[in-house]
Automatic annotation (TrEMBL):
<dbReference type="InterPro" id="IPR036116">
    <property type="entry name" value="FN3_sf"/>
</dbReference>
<dbReference type="Pfam" id="PF00041">
    <property type="entry name" value="fn3"/>
</dbReference>
<keyword id="KW-0472">Membrane</keyword>
<keyword id="KW-0393">Immunoglobulin domain</keyword>
<feature type="compositionally biased region" description="Basic and acidic residues">
    <location>
        <begin position="663"/>
        <end position="673"/>
    </location>
</feature>
<keyword id="KW-0732">Signal</keyword>
<feature type="domain" description="Ig-like">
    <location>
        <begin position="105"/>
        <end position="192"/>
    </location>
</feature>
<keyword id="KW-1133">Transmembrane helix</keyword>
<feature type="domain" description="Fibronectin type-III">
    <location>
        <begin position="487"/>
        <end position="583"/>
    </location>
</feature>
<dbReference type="Pfam" id="PF13927">
    <property type="entry name" value="Ig_3"/>
</dbReference>
<feature type="compositionally biased region" description="Polar residues">
    <location>
        <begin position="689"/>
        <end position="704"/>
    </location>
</feature>
<feature type="compositionally biased region" description="Polar residues">
    <location>
        <begin position="643"/>
        <end position="654"/>
    </location>
</feature>
<feature type="region of interest" description="Disordered">
    <location>
        <begin position="643"/>
        <end position="754"/>
    </location>
</feature>
<dbReference type="InterPro" id="IPR013098">
    <property type="entry name" value="Ig_I-set"/>
</dbReference>
<protein>
    <recommendedName>
        <fullName>Immunoglobulin superfamily DCC subclass member 3</fullName>
    </recommendedName>
</protein>
<dbReference type="Pfam" id="PF07679">
    <property type="entry name" value="I-set"/>
</dbReference>
<dbReference type="GO" id="GO:0016020">
    <property type="term" value="C:membrane"/>
</dbReference>
Amino acid sequence: DFGHSSELAFVVEPSDDIAVQEQPLILYCQVEGIQPITITWRKNGVMILDSENAFMLANGSLYVSRFQRVRGDGSSDEGEYDCMAQNHYGLVVSRKAKIQAATMSDFHIHPQNAVVEEGGVARFQCQIHGLPEPVILWHKNSMPVNTDNERYTLLPKGVLQITGLRAEDSGIFHCVATNIANVKFSREARLTVSGSHSTVYKDPMILVGPENLTLTVHQTAVLECIATGNPRPIVSWSRLDGRPIGVEGIQVLGTGNLMISDLTVQHSGIYVCAANKPGTRVRRTAQGSLVVQAPAEFVQHPQSISRPVGTTAIFTCVAQGEPPPQITWLRNGQILETSDHIKLKNNNSTLSIYGINQADEAIYQCLAENSAGSTQASARLTVLWADGLPSPPQGVRAETVSATTIQVSWEKPLQNTKEIIGYVLHIRKAADPVEMEYQEAVSKSTFQQLVTDLEPSTSYSFYIKAYTSRGASKASEVTVVSTLGEVPAMPSLFIKVINSTTVQATWEPSIKLGQHKGFKLYYRKVHLSQYTGPVLLASNVTAYNITHLDASVVYEVKLLAYNQHGDGNSTVRFVSLRETVERTVLNPPCDCMKDEQNNKTSTTGIIIGIHIGVTCIIFCILFLMFGYRGRLLMCKNVQEQLSTPQIPRSQRSATGLVLNGATRRDRDDRDLNGKQLDMNELERLFPASPSQEQQEKGVTSAHSPSALHDETQISTLPLDEFSIIEEQPDPLPKNPHGSSPAAPAPNHGPANEG
């Protein structure tokens, strides 16, 4: 079964009740489990002894012979009752049952006389308090009001509404309140219906709006709203949060009262009553809040478990309700006290017991309680213990090795060591809770363990358990030791040039620095041996300006972090102030504006160069496709736009320049000819026909598809690598200017052109 242990559990628990003065009262309690079981009762936490007035029945229920709210000695039978059951497995306590005496007060609101014109609305109200809630009925002229008349609306809280008044509605009204404690009558009030129905226009007006209500789930809520006006206003309801009210369980009483049956928590909210003039936007509103509470109930019950000695036991108990319930844990009926090995987490929803022993064996109860009610669930912890287990390991010692390492050693147990299969070392920061503990397993023949990856200057606790196949020994004595301290790590250092005499040193805070007191900053001219500094800076400082520097030399800047254990390793940077722009040698800062301008300039030059280069390539391809021979026009503008470095004239050969494995003709022929080439000169330079050129060149495959494909590939080389070979099958005579003709070039196939 969920929510209780099979060894001992409640079948029936006492419930809240309202008792009648001088009448008997029975509180029920039924328990199942392993006999013998002892049942006792408490009132307000005090044990109830059998007496003539109150005693326990054979089935475990409590019988109160004459319930009295106040006895002669000043005591009262009112209070919170609970039932306790105990056997040799443990003890459980039932939920608390709240017992109250039935009462009824005097009327504190009586109906008042009213004079209302015909066709109007009359409202009478009675109000009285009592336990249980009194039922209020209305009488007219000493006779019960006819509830079959749809113009008469009786609300549960003692309100009578009469709409569409007529002359026969006049009379004397009073109310009657009834509960198990008493019956009471209110004062009388007279209703007078005057005149005839008026046709004068009246704005809508809400006479009474909804009041704030706090109820429990499954109850019924009635939100009152009564409005007047001429013409008669239309009453409507909405939620302030905009959510729909819904239709299930919703009913309108009379002309505008909202009744919600079988309340749920989702019905909570602010409700708005609106009185609208028909056919217009003229309206009046009133609002009231509805709070629906839900008693505590369990979403997850604790489960009984069995665990070996020295392990961890965890119970989970999740409850819901409105308002959210508070969870309390009991151990054998007593409030559970937390300690180093007993922890409560997740708003008390999780109970963890670390390193359990036989004393922890008990029945644990989870009590969930809020203002709407309470509930309980129980589970049993069984601690498994085997005879012949080893005794605790002896002589546990811990020695500090470094800032992150501790060596733990121990001796084998004194008893029952033959079945030991290994040891487990339990490690925890001394300041951490028990649940932060972790373990390391060690072989049975090893009696020491080097614990690494610890934090510097931190205290740790250690204890050992010996394990067999049947369970673990009890824990050894706990030893506590601290690691050594260490100096901080190297900080990250960045240097930024501010101007010709100032640089800024910046660094980033990091958890890798560890605990440090501050920073030390040094700087010097690189050709000097003496540093300026240290400049002591607090641990929260991350920047420092070094001023009055000499712009003509290079500086060395050094930064380190320090603590009580000494100085850490330093980070060194070198910086030059020769230029006043923000630039450093080893770690240049990002000058985004400058980079952006450079990028724009470079991009513009590249685009212009591409346009010009593509134009020249197109011309060259056309010449190659038609098989022209001779000297081709070279575009000097391409060379100027792309700023291609010129090879010195001394490196040029008589037949051309060597570039990327190909020969290239001197590009300065245009200057030697002394005039600008145009299309007429192009025709003069290539007078031969294609067939004649082929014969002179001696190549028959120049215009084959593969050759054309090769020429196209060559033409798409980057512009700074593009070159054309001048082909001259026959030596040319000297030109008029006296320049010597170029030496004949070797006869290359089409694949080598370009």
